[in-house]
Amino acid sequence: MNDGMINQVVIVGGGTAGWLTAAKLAKYLSSNKSESVQVTLVESPDIPTVGVGEGTWPTMRKTLADLDIAEHDFINYCNASFKQATKFVNWRTPAQNGQDSVYYHLFSSIVNADEFNLSPYWSLSDKQIDYANFASPQAVICEGGFAPKTIANRGYDGLLNYAYHLDAGKFADFLKKISCERFGVKHLAANVISTNLNASGEISSIETKELGRIEGDFFVDCTGTRCLLLGEALGIEFTPINDILFTDNAIAMQVPYQNEDDAISSSTISTAHAAGWTWDIGLSNRRGTGYVYCSDFVSHDQAEQTLRDYIGPQAEQLSARRIKIASGYRKKFWEKNCVAIGMSAAFVEPLEASAIFLIEASANMLCELFPRNKKQLGAVEKKFNDSFEYRWKRTIDFIKLHYFLSHRKEDFWLENKSASSVPDSLLEQLDNWKYRPVSRYDFQNTFEPFIQDSYQYVLHGMGYVQELGYNASTFNQHHTVESILKKNEKLKQHLQNNLPTNRELLTKVKAFGFQKI
Amino acid sequence: MTTVNNDILIIGGGTAGWLTAAILAKSLNSKEENGIKVTVVESPDIPIVGVGEGTWPNLRATLHKIGVSETDFIRECDATFKQGAEFINWAKTPEPSAKESYYHPLGTVSHSSYDFNLAPYWLLKNKENRLPYDQAVASQARACDLGLAPKQIVMPEYSAAQEYAYHLNANKFSTFLRKHCIDNLGVKFVSANVTNIVLDENEFIKHVETDHSDEKLIPADFFIDCTGSKGLIIKQTYNIDWHDISDVLFNDTAFAVQVPYPDKKQAIKTHTLSTAQEAGWIWDIGLQERRGVGHVFSSKYISDEKAKQQLIDYIGDDYTDDLVIRKIPIKLGYHKKFWHKNSVAIGMSAGFVEPLEASAIFLFDAAATMIAAQFPRDKKQMPYVEQQFNQNFKVRMERTVEFIKLHYCISERRDTKYWIDNCDPVSIPEKLKQRLEYWKTQPPTKFDFDHAWEPFNLDSYLYVLYGMNYDTDLSGNTAAYPDAKKAEKLFYNVDRQTELLQKQLPKQRELVEKVKEFGFSKV
Lengths: 517, 523
Known about the structure:
The structure holds 2 protein chains of 2 kinds.
Chain A: E1 8-12, H1 15-28, E2 38-43, H2 59-66, H3 71-77, E3 81-83, E4 85-89, E5 102-106, H4 119-123, H5 131-135, H6 138-143, E6 163-165, H7 168-182, E7 186-189, E8 192-197, E9 203-208, E10 212-215, E11 218-221, H8 228-233, E12 238-240, E13 249-256, E14 267-273, E15 276-282, E16 286-293, H9 300-311, E17 321-324, E18 328-330, E19 334-335, E20 338-340, E21 346-347, H10 354-368, H11 377-404, H12 411-416, H13 424-433, H14 452-461, H15 478-498, H16 502-512
Helix pairs in contact in A: 1-7, 1-10
Chain B: E1 7-11, H1 14-27, E2 37-42, H2 58-65, H3 70-76, E3 80-82, E4 84-88, E5 101-105, H4 119-123, H5 133-137, H6 140-145, E6 165-167, H7 170-184, E7 188-191, E8 194-199, E9 205-210, E10 217-219, E11 222-225, E12 242-244, E13 253-260, E14 272-277, E15 280-286, E16 290-297, H8 304-315, E17 326-329, E18 333-335, E19 339-340, E20 343-345, E21 351-352, H9 359-374, H10 382-409, H11 417-422, H12 430-438, H13 458-467, H14 484-504, H15 508-517
Parallel strand pairs in B: 1-2, 1-11, 2-7, 4-14, 11-20
Antiparallel strand pairs in B: 3-6, 4-5, 8-9, 9-10, 12-18, 13-16, 13-17, 14-15, 15-16, 18-21, 19-20
């Protein structure tokens, strides 16, 4: 019988993308009831997950809460820690006389920019204090290694906005367990050999080595860069963006803590180097580090040496793993009865930890617009594709912004400033922001991946020069500003006095857990 | 040559002109010596149209921002509180005995449909014994039925127990704003007729000429056209193309009349009444001293005489022969761009969509607020701001037209050719058609509204769709809505909240009288 109903969803590929989508979809559609849509996830027992996506956005808190997961269970299982920012080191200029150039892109601001924008007041000030400290209490908290909350706060509540650092391999395992045990996802271990299409060009089934044919009404492609369904079977092409974002390789190392009480950073530390940048992410049990670089400007060996130098003497006993990366996105993400989520859809270098966020966003949209009947496919396909093309392009613009504003002089960095490598949409905005502050009207979409606050942290942090002096009279709310700044200083003091360090809080979470919501 | 925009000239007063002046002068600090100067030139001879009597809740934030006291505003503009609109006889052909209506309240649903959408749970209830959608998901429709005001006298100015806007006397509102602009915000006022607009070699406006003896020539850097449908700049100077929408929305004429209350103590409705007719609809707005009533209709489907008679019949016993019925031609549509060179059109000069959802004053306010936020102090910024503004307002206009059309095109009325033609698919804009098709098997979600400045949001669509009995069939997908318990609890909370409101809120007339006597406490 075929009345066009979609009853069987097959997710091909596990990893963070596959299991997060499975969990969200199965929960949303009540797959643990037999009369509902059934979700099956087919995962190769042989292909290891890439598992480098170790930073998330604050949206992850809502994602986990919606899945009825206790925050401490997640933290303890995934060796997670609290992330409150990205700390950008030496992006503006290289270190001078041993002095790093540093700025923060924070998750909390003292007041949201679309309610009251402090940015022009900072631009017009003497800039004795940097923008992040001017506009938020969170920079000093990060700098001091403090957590965003105390053990007395309930799960997912924070005194400051926060996200997580996590072990992506463990996270996929954790979601797998929950998806199968609680939400009724069926897990099959098998290698996909080929894909079968029906007369109207939709995917009707996949052939596997171990289990033969697996049929479905709707397919989610989470096969990573191989993109077996959307790319190979349905022929949707890949648009590379290496003319905009040049990095093509990453070399990764896991670094154990040397002492049990070593501080755990509450921000992702991103440090610029001659031909790229290193990430440094503190989990509860180890650090994850890596160098993302462009091989046109540095050899693999030199790159590995850069990472080892960054880590220091400790690196001698450690082995490194190299991963090729190809930045770009598919011309469509949704085609007929198949949608790609995760690296099968697109990959943009992990500078702003957008990967997991965009998986969450894709899965959310898939859930809420889930086409229960094939009649709806066309309309949802268009909506999804339009929305995500926009979101990926805006993500690319925002990443490029970090490179374009740098004053570094190495070839890699100079090349990054060549006009031909910068999207027009970004150039146009920068042109405007020279003479006026960033405005909420610059963000026309409800689903902008990066908001006004984010742009302002990066623009001001990178030392982008705005000329507002000629228009100073327009920014006249001095009383309001004064009272906000006072509040900010008070809050800084209060938080410093009351927050535990990231390490202290994680130890307590292990021992006691948070209160349930 | 200077590259800085320092002087703004607004041509035309009225609600559009004076509201724009106030927002710009306040935001751009015109009172300061180095602030941007705002001048309004208003004709002493041309009366303002002044029928725009309904507003949206954003006006509260705007009045607060420009430094107006709510008490003064209510006292001086004959204003009352508005909490929504009731649409009577829109959904189906009316039967003589039974009135059939639904509300589009101003408050978003209390649980916020963005986090948890009650609509599918309402749709899955038994059609025979469920409450109407507007009554089921929020308390405001019920509060309107009871004539309750949205707040208490002890609450500070502009704060609300239930979201609200105002009904106001547009003539008094313009006068009130003019005084505030001149006395408190540093706006310069010239009472004169503009006789000529003078362009430079690049077709930018250099200055305007007037019939004022001391102000024969007024130069400025930036010009705002608030001259109403005349469009002195946008139409007569630049001749910007017009986008006609008469193939979508058919109404082209209005009859308006002011009806005094026979009894000074008479209850005042806390919402706009909109009653569908054979070839149009009648608005009914309760101010302090009188009602504003009018019939908007399509002259292609009904004669003036008959339309006027329907209006008189509607007013019934309150109609007396001395009342003056004014005829107002309306031209629906908008210009293909609003910002051109160093000018922008705000108000009816930019375009007009019929007043069914009271979007006019909202759009003036939104336009002025956007210009204030992005004002190109440096001339180099102008092309970008122009492009942003034009794009943004094109979307707002299109979405407004679609939302108004929604009220007509999903109606089951088939009693006249007017209603039959209104439901003809060729008259429905493509995007609306697509949405409606999609909503046949799936309720609207936040993903249908991805433009940040969409004038009508998810809640508004839900109220109208399900108020009009739009048939979204979820029977194939019931399992996707497993949170029935949570939904039941929220439905129950609406009952509880209504009981509370009923205990705490005064009636509209009572609150208005108290405001007049005592005023609210200042913020």
